[in-house]
């Protein structure tokens, strides 16, 4: 693999991909803790209903909507240290959550946590696509997802032990999760040198017409993701009465499956291409959301949740698609822009659908099936071999012309 330009001499383990994997471990230690405890903490300590949880989730997505502002910060701080700072904010926000068991307290700590989470995710995506070669990116991205899932699995296991075996208060579980993220981040700050990418990044917002399909896929991904993140877990607590320990065990199972599955997705992308992988994902999600709408059996609902999680593990195929069609200098800016596009619907959907949930929860999941169907239609527009100049089948040259061009090149 080519090394990023101007990368200092380092030990064998002090490589960009190792740092990316460690940071991918640090993030879920906080976020998985926050996610596993949220519904029970909100219902039991703050007396939330579907309406309040919808407001909270919309507030959580506002920093994601503003993720484009990371470009302004990059005028003053380089991407790598800024990503580490964002992780510290995520950990601090998570650690503080348990001390504010009220509606306003949960809103404020959620926003703080979310600022760190969304800035970090924006920067992690940008750094990964800059540091990794195109042919290696799917495999390493799969390993990053797997490592994050392993960390999440450990977090969920510790949460279950803390709550159901040792009967710790949720306050101290929040503190432990956030503190571990901060500790790992500080170690990474000290242990790793500062890496640089293959190309100097633009320090202004970039919107290109030829990226329109990636923007559209990102928008719909953000919309239907809210159905899963906000309402699938809430269904388990409100309709089927799962407690925090049971939710942690379910999250533990999804993490274990993702550890096994994500590296296979990376190899699948290399073998089948982004187009086929995304078609499989979206077709599967349509069926899952339709089943969510009418499920009345707790065991079946858990099965749907696990299957849902596996399909979402395939979504990083859209990132490797973008890497293949993007100008190298556009990656940092477009990562910020894509997170903002991802969160346009995310800011609105939890509030609107939270009120819809109160009247009929089936409509929420039927809408998710419709969003997945829209994504499936867009996936058919991805070329089998996307490159710059061949971003969609609408502007891809005929295969005969491509073959002729390759022959001339030889």
Quote the distance from N terminus to C terminus. 23 Å
- Structural class call reads mainly alpha
Helical fraction equals over 70%
Rg estimate, integer Å: 21 Å
Bin the strand percentage.
under 5%
| Principal-axes shape call | globular
Order of helices and strands: HHHHHHHHHHHHHHHH
| Distinct helical segment count | 16
Query: How is the biggest beta sheet arranged?
Result: none
Whole-number mean pLDDT = 82
| Low-pLDDT sequence parts | 1-7, 399-410
- For the secondary structure, the number of strands is 0
Write up this protein.
- There is one protein chain.
- By secondary structure, this protein is mostly helical.
- It is built from 16 helices and no strands.
- The protein is globular.
């Amino acid at each position: 693999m080519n090394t990023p330009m101007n990368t200092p001499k380092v030990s064998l383990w002090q490589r960009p991909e190792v740092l990316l994997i460690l940071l991918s471990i640090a993030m879920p230690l906080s976020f998985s803790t926050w996610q596993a405890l949220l519904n029970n903490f909100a219902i039991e300590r703050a007396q939330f209903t579907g309406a309040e949880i919808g407001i909270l989730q919309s507030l959580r997505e506002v920093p994601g909507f503003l993720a484009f502002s990371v470009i302004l910060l990059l005028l003053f701080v380089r991407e790598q240290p800024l990503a580490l700072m964002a992780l510290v904010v995520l950990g601090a926000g998570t650690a503080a959550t348990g001390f504010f068991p009220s509606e306003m307290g949960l809103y404020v700590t959620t926003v703080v946590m979310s600022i760190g989470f969304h800035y970090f995710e924006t920067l992690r995506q940008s750094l990964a696509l800059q540091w990794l070669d195109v042919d290696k990116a799917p495999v390493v991205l799969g390993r990053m997802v797997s490592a994050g899932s392993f960390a999440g699995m450990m977090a969920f296991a510790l949460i279950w032990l803390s709550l159901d075996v040792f009967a710790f208060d949720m306050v101290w579980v929040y503190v432990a999760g956030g503190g571990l993220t901060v500790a790992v981040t500080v170690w990474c700050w000290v242990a790793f040198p500062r890496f640089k990418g293959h190309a100097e990044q633009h320090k202004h917002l970039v919107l290109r017409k030829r990226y329109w399909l990636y923007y559209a896929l990102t928008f719909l991904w953000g919309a239907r993701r809210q159905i899963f993140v906000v309402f699938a877990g809430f269904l388990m607590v409100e309709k089927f009465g799962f407690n925090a320990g049971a939710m942690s065990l379910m999250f533990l199972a999804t993490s274990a499956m993702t550890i096994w599955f994500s590296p296979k997705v990376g190899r699948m992308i290399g073998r089948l291409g982004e187009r086929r992988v995304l078609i499989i994902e979206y077709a599967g999600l349509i069926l899952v959301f339709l089943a969510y709408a009418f499920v009345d059996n707790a065991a079946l609902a858990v099965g749907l949740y696990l299957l849902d999680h596996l399909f979402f593990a395939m979504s990083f195929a859209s990132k490797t698609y973008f890497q293949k069609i993007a100008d190298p200098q556009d990656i940092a800016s477009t990562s910020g822009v894509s997170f903002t596009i991802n969160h346009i619907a995310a800011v609105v959907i939890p509030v609107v659908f939270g009120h819809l949930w109160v009247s009929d929860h089936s409509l929420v999941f039927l809408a998710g099936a419709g969003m997945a169907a829209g994504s499936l239609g867009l996936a058919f527009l991805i070329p089998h071999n996307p490159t710059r100049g061949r971003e969609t089948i609408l502007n891809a040259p005929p295969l005969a012309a491509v073959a002729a061009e390759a022959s001339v090149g030889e």
